[in-house]
Design goal:
Length: 97
């Protein structure tokens, strides 16, 4: 594994494994030019993580695992969306539960 060093404006210097970097080919809503994000744990329980831009130090979003807050949450993730970001469909669906 290769490590990626990110100089986060919010989190300070953060080193993550390259497998923790997710690429959104079309960016995300409102940020089409920012395509690479690292998933960084925000605390030990695993409920909260930061989606930290790899290329823009001041851009980070707090992400949450939905199941503890919304037990009936069952998103339908199209196969083509998972393929676009190189994520296994079954793994993506399981991660949201």
């Amino acid at each position: 594994m290769t490590a990626v060093m990110i100089e986060s404006g919010h989190l300070g210097p953060v080193e993550v494994d390259d497998d923790a970097v997710v690429e959104f080919p079309a960016g995300i809503i409102g940020f089409p030019d920012q395509r690479r994000y690292a998933i960084v744990a925000a605390e030990d329980s695993g409920l909260y993580s930061w989606l930290q831009s790899v290329d823009e130090p001041d851009l980070a979003f707090l992400a949450v695992v939905p199941a503890p807050f919304f037990p009936d949450y069952a998103p339908v993730i199209p196969d083509e969306d998972c393929a676009a970001i190189s994520v296994d469909h079954a793994a993506a669906t399981a991660a949201l539960k």
